[in-house]
Every structure is written in structure tokens, then in C-alpha cells.
Design a protein that fits this description.
This protein is of the alpha+beta class. The chain has seven domains: 1-69, no CATH class; 74-291, Endonuclease/exonuclease/phosphatase (Deoxyribonuclease I, Chain A); 300-362, no CATH class; 372-425; 615-652 and 710-823, Reverse transcriptase/Diguanylate cyclase domain (Alpha-Beta Plaits, 2-Layer Sandwich), CATH 3.30.70; 826-914; 919-1014, no CATH class. Helix content is 40%, strand content 17%. It contains 30 helices and 33 strands. A six-stranded mixed sheet has the order 7-8-6-5-16-15, with no helix packed on it. It has a six-stranded mixed sheet with strand order 9-10-11-12-14-13, with helices on one face. Helix 26 crosses helix 28. Residues 1-36 and 480-484 have low confidence and may be disordered. This is Reverse transcriptase domain-containing protein.
Amino acid sequence: MTRSMNCDQFSVPIGVITNHPNTTRRGYRGGKQWPKKIKTLITCHHKPVLTTKTNTESINRNNLVNINLKVSPTLCLLNSRSVKNKINNLYEYIIDNDLDIFIITETWLKDKDDFLLNQLIPDNYGYELMNRNFKKGGGIINIFKKSIDCKRVASPKFTSFEHMAISVKVRNETLVIISIYRPPPSKSNGLTFDLFMSEFCSFVSDKAIDSGKLIILGDFNIHVDKPDEENVSKFMHLLESFNLQQHITKPTHTQNHTLDLVITRETDAIIKSTEVVNHLISDHYSIFCELDILKPGPVKRLLTARKTKTMDIEGFRAAMRKNEQLQGITSQNSMSEQVEVYDKVLTDLLNDYAPLLTKTITIRPNTKWYNDEIRHSKRLRRKAEKKWRKSKLEIDRQIYNSTRTNTNNLIAAAKKQHFQQQLKDNKRNTKGIFKITNKLLQSTHSSNFPSGQTTQQLTQTFSDFFDNKVSSIRDQFDNNQPGLNHPDETFTGHMLNQFKPVSESEIKTLISSSTSKSCSLDPIPTWLLKTGLDDLLPVITSIVNTSLSTSEVPPSLKSALVNPLLKKPTLDPNILKNFRPVSNLSFISKLIEKVVAEQFCHHLEENCLGAKFQSAYRKCHSTESALVRVYNDVVSSIDKNRTVALVLLDLSAAFDTIDQSMLLKRLSSRLGVNGAALDWFRSYLTGRKQEVIIDGIRSKPKCLRYGVPQGSVLGPLLFTSYTTPVADIMRRHDLDHHMYADDTQLYVEVDANNKNLAKLEACIEDLRNWMKSNFLKLNDDKTEAIFFSKTKLSLHNSVLVGDVHIETTDYVRNLGVLLDENLKMKRHVSTICKKANFHLYRIGRIRNLLDTDTTKLLINAFVTSALDYSNSLLYGLPSYLIHQLQSIQNKAARIITRTNIRQHITPILADLHWLPINYRICFKINTLTYNCLNNPDSPAYLKDLIHLYIPQRSLRSSNQLQLKAHKTNTKFGERAFCFASPQEWNKLPLSIKQSCSASSFKKNLKTHYFNMAYNQ
């Protein structure tokens, strides 16, 4: 409250207090972000008091609250001796001390613990991490405010110590901060002090002359408090020889030794002050360094959003119904006019009912679980700490430790209750549950994009990179080379000349079955469109049918927004090739594509135009069905004591380099698309544009001269249509093959004279030539080859692909399954177990936050799916491999039910109604068999492997729907689908075989196996 007054009426002088040195830190949550010089006006009626220690300038300072005037960034070092059991404590430590840079040594983290970083790193902080995965202990993490530009610097590895170097830019200053952990020498690690001195000398000699101010800090495990010791003397002499200064003079360990050091160049003068404080976090003390540079400002973010949750939806719908422009859209309007009116009217209405709001916010730690009880407990903790530090009494230390423990327990309980309540509120919202659990389980990546550029610069950099990548591939081709083009087959069936109009009911079904994902190009969110679908249905149907009848796709529906995403979280975000472009298209454009795709697919199936061995984007076809056929053929050949050569071809940017004119020609001449239908495809493909978008900032639009649209519905179908001649080439060479989108594999039996191997190489050469003439780049370096046989072969060790001899490997990854050269599947089972154990460990760490249903949901999503993927290939494996998988399922069941290892697992699995692993494999085999016998859309290449048993004369078995048994030469051959399918199918009761639908078959089959497994 401010009061106006005349200062002259007082007989006492007015004291103005500014920048008093005895300042205290104001709490971070108090909102203090910028250091400000606040003047305090002091007035009083009584006579001046005597000047004392607490009364200077006639002011009683006990009545004043000192404000933190921190203007320098704080660097803190701590050896945590394990982060795992101190997550909440360290999180609070960062916030309470408002740390700018926090370096933790001995984190004891492994790669599998990366999800713990979500609970450790506040929202306005980033990090750089180095784990020690193959030994106990060690590990370093650097945590820093996002307002500080930190970038990891490459540095050589050493045996005697681990370190991480980061380049730090704060305003106009550049620092190089090197964090070090040196494990103490022992007989077990074989390290010596002399080795450390040799390596550290080499290390420092390089870093001491680097540009930028240098700070080296960490746990050196050298007792520098004992200067008379020989090793200490050698170490200090080394620092002096490089003009380096060590700043810590107080003990940093509970044993009163100085082990944690801060070292700088004597000439840098970067450390303003240091303070060693024992906060009882570990047996090491914290070291606070005040840096002699200007503190960076807070991170701010510009948010643009609409309050759609509170908007008047019924009023919005009524406005749509009353809008004459929107409801007046008919087929008489041009396609462009209809889309323009649709976009403009809906955008204007949304702006009226949910205006676009822009707000600048300061990024702060997310502490929604913070409550008054925690606040009061932290106050008591601070008082207890002050009392202990003042008295130095053991009883006060114990009281402080007790209050600290109580505060940590309150924080942990509050967090647990907060997340449990969130999960409870989203109990019926699977998407919401995954969003919450992903936040708990997925690691927070320190940087998603290259550093050193503004968002606008980044968008343009990515846009240019994606465009140049395609152009550089296209420039490598010379389409004028003679003899490279293979003529396409001429279409002779029923032509597709015109797309048929669709009814409102068909459009409603398509929209209702679509996901509610939205794109920035949409005038209204998809969920809002679905809410008012009855009001918009005639309008949307008119737009779709007008596009089909006029063969026009307007420019506004041919734009894409591209998000650059890291291919893998572990890849370096500063390397552009580690990103893949993910396109987003408007909802209406994808809806039109779905209508066209349905009619185009019907045309292909009706005329048998789909490649038999192409399993991508076809009903009842999958990666597993493709693998079952390839695996069956290889196993059958090995059963006959033959060797099989398999080559996996790799294409570079396959969807992006397609020649559009060639595609249109192929659609016409080979696939029978002509007239208005071909004109629609021409309009759809030409004149497309894309913009890269990052945080709402877009790049300049780029015209797409080549390729099919990424992220579209029709893109994959058009790619498989473009590559249909590939199957002709492989058939012409009489080679077995299979394709899944742009993944192509060829396999053939080979012998000692290499006759078939030469045929394989000739086929690959023809494929290379065809792809070159059709602007597809075969990546020779990423092409893989393997020879399958019963025993290790030395006859073949490479396959010629172009000008490159591809060395054969002992295993390959084929559509997600690891196939080794002897098909023992040990490596694949081991990979499944490793992946499942990884997820079980993470889910187990947050199990106390989850209820049973949510835990079961996560287990099914991350663990059971891994056990079931392509498990039909596991039929006939040795029992010890099946047992490894069963142990994973048992562990998952125990996590769900919270039962210990001593309890028998069978009743637990039965209560969960889970089939054991061996029955799940048989379940998959029989499901594939049922589909082959009853579903006309099931893969023809699997139907060819099984045959109904038809006896020559009437027998009782004639009506049992038996399959003809397949004979094998060895036990190994029984793992092929052609053997396993009749073997398991013929064991089933007739009532199950005669199930009227696939769903009833699965239900009956599971009940049958459940009763067998648990003797019920």
C-alpha cells in the first residue's frame, strides 16, 4: 500500500536503503526472477535511536526483510553417491537454491534409468548426461537453465578418469566447463596414480590452451588437504606448471578431506567466490561457486492458444447452421470456392467463440503437487538448518536431519497422490493415461534441435536440408542411359475412368472412424468438427464429391507442414541427417484421399493388380505374414540340407524421389487409371508445397517437384503402384522375393558352384538399373546379405551389389525380427527379453503410482506386444528359449499383481487370464490358419502353403475340416508354417474350426487353450 506524505514534517532524516550487503535469498517460488535495486523509504515519528550493530543510519534493520540481489550465476558441484534414491531431494535442491548450473558426479545411472531424469530435471532446465553402463558407480550429469546456451564438446576418453566437457555461453561470455570423476585406484580396477597423472597431463595440455575461460571441477579423490604427501605434491605441481589455480581449501567430505576441487586458469578470474556447504545429501559436501559474469535472464515462451474447453459449443453449432455462406455451398460452386468458404467461415466463427490468445510466460518448474504442508515443513527445515549451523551441536544436526527427511517424505507422498489423482481422473481415457505415464517413463531430452540458431533460422535450415537431400539424389541419375528402362505390361482389364460420388452416410462413417488429430492447416480442431458433424456433413460431402467430379485438388489442400523429428533419441541433434521429416496434412485433404484410396484399392483387387508378394497397405497382410512366408521357405530349404542366400535391399528417401510423370504413366498403362480419375491424380500430385514448422514458426514454402506426399493416405499406395515392375524383374530371374513398402528382400538356394548366386547378383544388377532409370536410389552400403544353413559355411562370404561386395553377416534384422545364420533364434529371443526387461524395470519403478488396470494397460502395450510380435516364428524352438520368454511373462504378472517370487505363478497367470507363451504361439498359428481358410483377403502366399485334406473315399474324417499333413526330413523342418499349421489345426475340436467369425474363433480358441493350460 502506498501513502502520500510530506517528508518535511518529520524531524528525523529519511533513510534510503539500497544494495545492502547482508542480503538473504528470496524463495524461488516467490517469483523473484530479475535482480532489481529496490529503494526502501524509512520514516518514523519518534526520535532517532542510538546507532548499534543492528541500528545504523537511525534504522532498525531487524524490521527490514533483505532482498536477494543476486546478479551472478551460481555453479554447484556435488558428488551424490547415487541419484536414484535422492531424486526428490535433488529436484528440490535445484529449485530452492536457484542453481544456474548443477554438476553431479557419481550419479550411478545406466541408460535404462533415463526416465528418472523426468523426475530430476525441472521444466526450465536442460541437461547433458554421461552414464557408466558397464561398471558400477561413476556417471556425470550437467544440469543447466535453458536460458544458458550449453553445448557438449567432443573430448578424448581416458582410462583413469571419466569426464564431460561443455561449452557454456552466458550473455557475451564463453566458458568451457569440464566435470571430472576419478575413481580411486584399487586392485579390482587396475588403476594407478601414475596413470592418472600421465593422462591428466595430456588432457590439461590440450585444454589449457583452448579459447574461452576454463573451469575444471569434480571429485578427484586426491587429498589436497595433505600437501606433504608425494602424490598431492605431484598433482599441485602439475597444476602450477599449466598456470592453473585450485580454489577449494575446506574439507568436502565427511572424513574431513578435500576431494572435490574447482580449478581455473589464474588469468581467467572467473570464480568470484566459493562456499562449501554440508546439506546432508551424501558423504560429500556441496560446493557453490559464484561466477564473475552477468546472470542470464529467465526463459520465456510465447504461447498462442484458444480456450476451446470453455467455449459455447452449442452456440458455435447454431452459428454454423445459420451461416448462409457455409450452408450455401453446393456442387455448383467450384472446388476452390467451396474450400475457401469452408476455411474462412469456420475460422471466423472459431475466432468469435474461442479467440486466439497470445501470452508470454516465464518457464517455471512444474510443482502442481506443492501444498501448504510442504511449505510449512520446508520452513521448519530451514530454521533447523540455521540453528545447527550456528550451534554446531550434534543434537541440532539430528533435528535438522529429521526435519529434512520428513520434508522429503511429504514431497514424495504429494507427488504420488498427484499422479494417482491424474490417473484416476483419466481412468476411462486411454490416451490421457498414456500421456501421463509417458511423462513418467520417457526421458527428457536436453536438446531436440541443433543449437546456435533462432527458431526461424532452424525452420529454414531444415527446409533447405530436406529439399537439397532429394535434389542431390535426383542429380545422381542420368535417365538418358540406353537399355535401362524396362517396358511396363499393358493393362487389359476394366478401366478406372471416374471416381464415384459418395453419400453422406459413407462420409460420416469415415469421419467417425478417423482419429481426432488436428493440424495447424485445419480451420477448426477435428474433435470440434466431429461434435458438429451433423451440421457440417452436407458441406463436407459436397466438397468431397466436387473434388471427385471435377478432378481438382485445390492448392490449399496440397500444402503440408513438416515437423523434423530425431530418428532415435540417442542421436546427435546437431547433425541434420539424424532427423526425418514428418508431414501433417489438413483433415479434409486426408478425407478426400481416403475416399479415393477405397475406390482405387477396390479397382486393384478387382483386376488382380496387386503384387502377390507385396504385403504393405493391404487388408489382412502384415509384416508378420510376410515373415512367416520367408521364414517358411528358408526353413524348408535348410530341412533339405540346402543353403539359402538372402539379400535385404535398402532405398534412400524412396518416397521423395519418385518421378511424378512416370507414376502417372504407370497408373495409366499398367494399372488402368484413365480419364477423370487420372486427371484427379495429376491434380493431386502436381503443385504441392511444404513448410517446416517448429514451435509455431514456419519456414518459407518449398515446391515439391518429386515424390509422393509424406504422411498422406495415398502416398504408400502410389509408391507400391510405382514399384510394381520390381516383382516382374525378380520373377524373370526366377527368384523368391518379398516386399513390404520400400523394403525388398530376395532369397535363393545356392550351392558350391555358385550358379544361383550369380543369378541373384544378376537380378540385383537389373534391379539397380531399373531403379536408376526410375529415380530410386539403391543404397549399396546399407544393403545386407546372409547365408542360412545348418552349419557354418566358408564357401560364400560376399554378394556383389553394384560395384560393392557386400560382406555376409551372421545375423540380419528383417522387419523387426533378428534372423541368425542357423535360424536358432537365440539372438532374437535375447533381444525380446532385453527389451521386455527394460520396460518392466521402468514400469516397476512407478508401480506405486499406478492402479492394477493402468499397470496392465502399460504391460500389454510395452511387454506383451513384444512377446506376441511375430511369435508364430517361434514355433518348435527348444524349450529353454521358450522358458526365457515365459520368465518375462511371469515377471510381468508379478508386477501387475504385486506378488513376490515365492508365490506360485500358475494361479496368478490364470487370474489374469493369460495364456502361457507356448499356447500363445499355437494361438497365433491357428489364427493365421483360420484366416487363410475363411477370409478371401488373407495373403495368397500363405494359402499356398496349406491344403484341406480330402480323402479318396468317404471317411468319418471327411467332415472334420482337417488339413493335409506336411512331411519333413528333420525335426528342424517342423518349424515351418507348412508343417505347424496342419499340425496344430488338426488338434482342434470341430466346433472351434466351424466358428462363424474370426472374433468368435479367437474367443473359442482362447477358452480351449486356457482350459488345457490350467486343467480346467
